[in-house]
Design brief:
Elements: H1 3-19, H2 26-34, H3 42-71, H4 78-81, E1 85-88, E2 94-98, E3 105-106, H5 116-126, H6 138-151, H7 161-169, H8 177-193, H9 196-206, E4 213-214, H10 216-224, H11 233-241, H12 255-271, H13 277-284, H14 300-309, E5 315-317, H15 322-339, E6 344-351, E7 357-361, H16 389-398, E8 407-410, E9 429-432, H17 433-438, H18 442-452, H19 454-463, H20 489-500, H21 528-539, E10 553-558, E11 564-570, E12 574-581, H22 593-607, H23 631-634, E13 653-656, E14 662-663, E15 677-682, E16 688-692, E17 695-701, E18 705-708, E19 714-721, E20 727-734
Parallel strand pairs: 1-5, 3-4, 14-20
Antiparallel strand pairs: 1-2, 6-7, 6-12, 8-9, 10-11, 11-12, 13-15, 15-18, 16-17, 16-19, 19-20
Helix pairs in contact: 2-3, 3-8, 5-11, 7-8, 7-9, 11-12, 11-13, 12-13, 15-22, 16-18, 16-21
Length: about 725
C-alpha cells in the first residue's frame, strides 16, 4: 500500500469515527465502485456521499423520533378501561348489558372469545405483517408513499392495527403528518408494553361500528344477535369492514355499501388463500342485516339488583342459568297471557344444596307496561293463602301433637268469633292429617294451629329468616294460617327449600362464587323427621291435569279475594316457587292457584330437564297407620280425662332437659358407654308420651319421667304429650 493510500484510509477512518457507525463502510463502497487501487470516479463519490447523507439523515431522524416519543409521556389507557356494565350468567353468558354514561355500548371481549376466522380476516385485510412488525410497518409506509406519488391520492394506508389502537386510545380529528407521527410513537410504546394478543384485544374492544356501537361484541350482538364466537364467514367479513368507515357502511342505514365492503374483505381473503371459492360464494350470498337487534335483557330484575348493590363493578356474574332463565321467562309470559289482561307472573328456582338462584323471573314481561313489567314480583309482599299450611303441620309433627296418620275432624268449628270454612264450603268429616293437607282443608289446619299457637308459628317462620308482615290491627290470630299475613316469593321459596333440606333453610345465593351468610343449623323451619313427613304428604297431593302425580312435593295457595295464586314445589335437588296476580293487588275473579299456578309450576319443573329425585327418609321416622299409632297420636285430642284432676290446672312443661341446653352424655369419649338422657316433666295430665326427633320413645308413662338412649352426638328435639293433648317441646345438643 502506498503512502497516499494509507493517508486516504486514515482520513476515511477518522471521518467515519466522527460521523458514526453508518459511514464506516464508505471506503469499501468507493473501492468496489472504482476497482481495487483505482481512484473512485466522480459518480461513485457522489453516490457514496448521497448514501452517507441518507444514512446520516436516517440516524438523525430515528434519534429525533425517539426524543419526540419520550417527550409524549406514558400513554393513558383510561379509554380502554371504560366499558359497559355487563351481567353474566354462571357460565359467562350475557344476561344483560347497560350503556356507558354517555350512551355508548362497549362490551368487554377478548381474543379467546372471538371466532378465529374473524381474526384471520382482520389481520389479512388490515395488517398482513401484524405478527412480524414492531408497531410500525416500514414496508407498508413506503408502499403507501409510492402509491401517493404515483397516483396523487391515497390508494392504501400504511397504518397498522397497533397504530389504529393508538388512534382509538388518543382520538384526534386532524389527519396530519404530526398526528401520524404521534400514532407511530404510541404504536411503538404499545408493542413494548403489550403482547400481540393484548393489542388485538384492545382493538376488538375499541373499534367503532356505527352509531353508539364500539367494539366487536357490541356490534355482533346488535347486528346479528349472537356472540362473536359464533359468527359465520359472511358476518365476520362484514364486521372486519365496518370500522374503516363505520357511518358510511352501517348495514342498518346503508346495506348496499355494507355489502360491497364485506365482499372486498372476502376477495382479499380469497386472494391470500384463507378461504376457498365455494366458501367465498356462500358468504357473499348471506343477507346483510338491515336493522339493529335489541341487546339481551334476561333476568332484568336480578341484573338491576346486582348493579345497585355494587355499582362500581363492571362485570357481575350471577348464579342464574341463561338458557333456563330464557325458557322460564317465556313460560311466565305465556301463563300470564292465558290468565288474563293485566296479570303478571314470577318464578324463582333455587338449588337446594347451595341456595343458589338458578332462575329469577320477576315479571311476565319486563317491557310490558300494561302488566307493570318493571315491578319485581318476587320481592312484593303478598298474601300466601294456603301456601303456609305445610309449616303448621310441620310444627305439629315436630312437637308430638300429630302424625301424618293422626285423625282430624273436618266439620264446622268456631273459635270465638272466628269460624273457618273450607275453600269449597264442604266438609270431609273425619280425615287423616295426610289427607287434610293434600286436600288443603282449612278447618283441620286451623285446629292444628289452635293447638300450636299462631305466635309460635310466626316465631318459627321469622326464626327461619322469613320477613313476615302482619296487619296493623290486633294481635295475630288463627287467620294467619290461611293467608292472613304478607310474605315474599323469595322467602316462600327459601322455606320450601328448607323442607327439602330436612328443615335447614338456606340463604339465597345470587352471585357466582358466594355462599350463604348463615349456617343452616341456625335457620330451621322444622326438624328432619317433621320436614320429611310434610314432604312425603305433599308428594301425594293431586297433580294438575298437565302433570303426572307423585313426582314432586308441592302446595298451592289462593289468597282472599282471588288476588294471588301461588304454587311451590320441590324434589331433593331443586325448589321452584311461582306466583300470578295483578301487580296493583286488584282482585281477579277465577284466579285459583290450582288452575293457573300449579300447571305453571309443573311446566317449570319439566323445563329444568331433570328427572325429579326423591327425598330419602331420615332416621326415626315412624311408619304407621292410624290404628297402630301410639294412642295420644291417633286423634287430635281436646277432651281432658277426669281421672287425675289434681294436676289438671298445672301446664305441661319439660323440666329436663332445659331448652337450648348442652347435655354431656359421654357420646364423644372413646371406651365409655353413653349414658341415657333423662326426661322429666311437670304438670299436665298423665299418662305422658315422650318423643325424640318425632319418634315415640316412651308411651303412656304414668310417671312424669323417663329416659332415652341416643345413638350419637348432635341436636335433638324432645317433645312430650299428655292425656289431654297438651304438649311441650325443647331442643338440646347432646355431647
Amino acid at each position: 500500500m502506498t503512502a497516499a493510500e494509507r493517508a486516504r484510509r486514515d482520513q476515511s477512518g477518522h471521518a467515519g469515527g466522527e460521523r458514526g457507525q453508518g459511514l464506516r463502510g464508505l471506503p469499501s463502497l468507493l473501492r468496489r465502485a472504482s476497482g481495487n487501487g483505482a481512484r473512485p470516479s466522480v459518480a461513485a463519490r457522489r453516490a457514496a456521499a448521497a448514501a452517507g447523507l441518507a444514512l446520516l439523515a436516517a440516524g438523525a431522524g430515528i434519534a429525533a423520533f425517539r426524543l419526540y416519543a419520550d417527550g409524549l409521556g406514558p400513554l393513558d389507557l383510561a379509554a380502554a378501561r371504560e366499558r359497559s356494565t355487563v351481567v353474566l350468567d354462571r357460565d359467562g353468558r350475557l344476561l344483560r348489558a347497560f350503556t356507558m354514561a354517555d350512551g355508548r355500548w362497549r362490551l368487554p371481549v377478548t381474543v379467546r372469545e372471538v371466532d378465529p376466522r374473524f381474526l384471520d380476516l382482520l389481520v389479512a385485510y388490515e395488517d398482513a405483517r401484524f405478527r412480524r412488525h414492531g408497531g410500525v410497518d416500514g414496508l407498508a409506509l413506503a408502499r403507501a408513499a409510492a402509491q401517493i406519488a404515483a397516483n396523487g391520492r391515497v390508494v392504501s394506508g400504511g397504518s397498522t392495527l397497533t397504530m389504529q389502537v393508538a388512534r382509538l386510545l388518543e382520538p384526534r380529528e386532524e389527519r396530519s403528518l404530526a398526528a401520524k407521527l404521534r400514532q407511530m410513537a404510541r404504536a411503538r410504546e404499545l408493542e413494548r408494553r403489550f403482547s400481540k394478543d393484548e393489542i388485538l384485544t384492545l382493538y376488538l374492544g375499541l373499534a367503532p361500528y356505527g352509531g353508539n356501537l364500539e367494539g366487536l361484541r357490541a356490534a355482533s350482538l346488535a347486528y346479528f344477535g349472537k356472540e362473536p364466537k359464533r359468527l359465520s364467514l359472511g358476518e365476520a367479513a362484514l364486521l372486519v369492514a365496518l370500522p374503516q368507515a363505520p357511518e358510511l357502511r352501517r348495514p342498518d342505514r346503508s346495506p348496499e355499501a355494507a355489502r360491497r365492503a364485506r365482499d372486498r374483505v372476502l376477495d382479499r381473503a380469497l386472494a391470500r388463500g384463507l378461504i376457498t371459492p365455494a366458501e367465498a360464494a356462500a358468504a357473499r350470498a348471506e343477507a346483510v342485516p338491515r336493522e339493529r337487534r335489541p341487546f339481551p335483557a334476561l333476568a332484568a330484575h336480578a341484573a338491576e339488583a346486582a348493579v345497585r348493590q355494587a355499582p362500581a363493578e363492571r362485570v357481575h356474574r350471577l348464579t342464574v342459568e341463561a338458557r333456563l332463565q330464557a325458557s322460564l321467562e317465556a313460560l311466565a309470559r305465556e301463563s300470564a297471557e292465558r290468565a288474563g289482561p293485566g296479570i303478571s307472573a314470577a318464578v324463582l328456582v333455587v338449588d337446594n344444596a347451595t341456595g343458589a338462584v338458578r332462575a329469577h323471573v320477576g315479571a311476565a314481561d319486563y317491557f310490558a307496561a300494561d302488566r307493570a313489567g318493571s315491578v319485581d314480583a318476587t320481592e312484593a309482599v303478598r298474601s300466601p293463602g294456603s301456601a303456609l299450611k305445610p309449616f303448621i303441620y310441620a310444627l305439629a309433627f315436630e312437637n308430638g301433637l300429630a302424625h301424618p296418620e293422626t285423625v282430624l275432624d273436618d266439620r264446622p268449628s268456631r273459635y270465638g268469633l272466628y269460624a273457618p270454612e273450607n275453600f269449597d264450603l264442604a266438609y270431609q268429616g273425619t280425615v287423616t292429617a295426610r289427607r287434610a293437607l293434600q286436600l288443603s282443608l282449612n278447618v283441620p289446619a286451623v285446629a292444628l294451629l289452635a293447638e300450636v299457637g299462631p305466635p309460635r308459628l310466626l316465631a318459627r317462620l321469622r326464626g327461619a329468616g322469613a320477613d313476615i308482615v302482619l296487619p296493623r290491627e290486633g294481635a295475630p290470630g288463627l287467620a294467619v294460617g290461611l293467608g292472613g299475613l304478607g310474605i315474599r316469593l323469595t322467602d316462600l321459596a327459601r322455606l320450601y327449600a328448607g323442607l327439602a333440606r330436612g328443615g335447614g333453610v338456606p340463604d339465597l345465593v345470587r352471585r357466582q362464587g358466594e355462599t350463604g351468610a348463615r349456617p343452616a343449623a341456625r335457620a330451621r323451619i322444622a326438624d328432619p323427621v317433621a320436614a320429611w313427613y310434610v314432604a312425603d304428604i305433599l308428594k301425594g297431593a293431586p297433580a294438575p291435569v298437565n302433570a303426572l302425580p307423585g313426582r314432586i312435593a308441592f302446595k298451592t295457595g289462593t289468597s282472599y279475594g282471588y288476588r294471588d295464586a301461588w304454587a311451590a314445589g320441590f324434589d331433593r335437588r331443586t325448589t321452584v316457587a311461582v306466583w300470578l296476580g295483578r301487580p296493583d293487588g286488584a282482585a281477579v275473579p277465577g284466579l285459583v292457584a290450582r288452575s293457573v299456578a300449579a300447571p305453571m309450576l309443573f311446566e317449570a319443573f319439566a323445563r329444568l330437564g331433570e328427572e325429579p329425585e326423591a327425598i330419602p327418609a331420615p332416621p326415626n321416622v315412624l311408619f304407621a297407620t292410624s290404628a297402630t299409632l301410639p294412642p295420644p297420636l291417633r286423634h287430635l285430642r281436646k277432651d281432658a280425662p277426669k281421672t287425675i284432676a289434681a294436676t289438671a290446672s298445672a301446664p305441661l312443661r319439660i323440666a329436663f332437659p332445659p331448652d337450648g341446653a348442652r347435655v354431656d352424655l359421654g357420646l364423644g369419649r372413646a371406651g365409655e358407654g353413653a349414658a341415657p338422657l333423662a326426661l322429666k316433666a311437670t304438670g299436665g295430665v298423665p299418662p305422658l308420651t315422650w318423643f325424640v326427633n318425632g319418634a315415640p320413645v316412651a308411651e303412656r308413662e304414668i310417671r312424669r319421667q323417663s329416659s332415652w338412649l341416643p345413638d350419637g352426638a348432635g341436636f335433638a328435639r324432645v317433645s312430650v304429650v299428655d292425656a289431654r293433648g297438651a304438649t311441650d317441646s325443647v331442643a338440646v345438643r347432646l355431647e
